[in-house]
Design a protein that fits this description.
Largest sheet: 8 strands, mixed
Structural class: alpha/beta
Strand order of the largest sheet: 6-7-8-3-9-10-13-12
CATH topology of one domain: Rossmann fold
CATH superfamily of one domain: P-loop containing nucleotide triphosphate hydrolases
Strand content: 15-25%
Distance between the termini: 97 Å
Number of helices: 14
Order of helices and strands: EEEHEEHEHHHEHEHEEHHHEEEHEHHH
Radius of gyration: 31 Å
Oligomer: single chain
Helix content: 25-40%
Length: 435
Amino acid sequence: MDTKNTTQEKAVHVAHLPEHGPVDETGREVILSLRNVDINFGKGDTLNRAVKNASFDIYRGETFSLVGESGSGKTTIGRAVIRVNPCAAGEILYKGVKISGKIPHSLDRDVIRNIQMVFQDPAASLNERATVDYIISEGLYNFHLFENEADRVAKVEKIINEVGLLPEHLTRYPHEFSGGQRQRIGLARAMVMEPELVVADEPISALDVSIRAQVLNLLKKFQQERGVTYLFIAHDLSIVRFISDRIGVIYKGDIVEIATAEELFDYPLHPYTKSLISAIPIPDPVLEKNKVLFTYDPSVHDYSVEKPQMVCIGHDHYVFGNSAEIEEYKRIREAGVPIKSIKIKDPNEPEEETKEEDNVSSEPILDAPIHDTGNKLYGIGSFFLPIIGLIGWLLFKKHRYYKNYRMCKKGTLAGLITRGVIVGLFLLALLIALI
């Protein structure tokens, strides 16, 4: 997309990063730019296009969130920014300098020093054989960011206090901490480097709700005190709404919508964005029970003739679509009527009656009585006492005890058939004896 190519300068090839990045026409400093980035895995028949033509800018001091379902390519983009995943096409610029592909060793070190990552799994991302002191200090050692041993210890103790842990924790190992504490260690390891950009890859998804709030507050605190810029990767829109300046929505490798947080929630134009918003849980159990989920169906788009593009429809709002869709999106946005993505059905409306069938898969799971277990004793009893089994069969079916009903039915029919065979054989033997 030509989106967010707000700075039209060509990528600069230098040995070190400049102090400041290019400034767009609105006066904002662009710290990170993705331009038509493709990221592939595999080759030939096994080729998987994980990210397709991704383009966006991140401005200094903001939180840009990238949201989408699992497997959409969020983490793939984050790892490409820290130069773990190579780009098959396009380029990634940091402060106007190309950092994707082959770059000088000195520039690579600058990138590592200025861009840090907080990983999703706080257990797997920490070295279990190293103490917390060494884990946090490793970057300081590699880049020699301390004057002497006393200065190193002071920096480590300062950052460990800032993330809410104690200096005595420095001699312990990661397995001695809870998930929330391990995530704080990972955050301290990143922040001790004093980075300008932090890629936060779902840093709170593995944590309890109360711990999530604490980690988010820590991230906000560092941003306010140090001017850190975040690329925040998540799948939960309810969280990113309150911490993001701008949000990008990604679906199967395609970025389908980019807008400010409030703009995106007031005017979710792409159907996939609507589906993500409709999936946000409502705290009220009554409303949540009656909520109608909006399911995204990719077949609603017809891209056989005209391929879609990311286009700005005004209000710093970018949407992915063909010309007909873009015109419709513009019309809806210019109408200025906020779009409701969450629909609550009236609980008083009569529901359509469903036909009772003997197919197990058609049974509403939550409507099954608690004692409808289909105990084999019902079948055995019905086999020996088929009359009683027939009565149980009818009663269970009437009261929707389907499993018990089927067991009685099988036992009763088996009992009646067995008795019929025995009587038939007896009559046959009697007939033969008389002849």
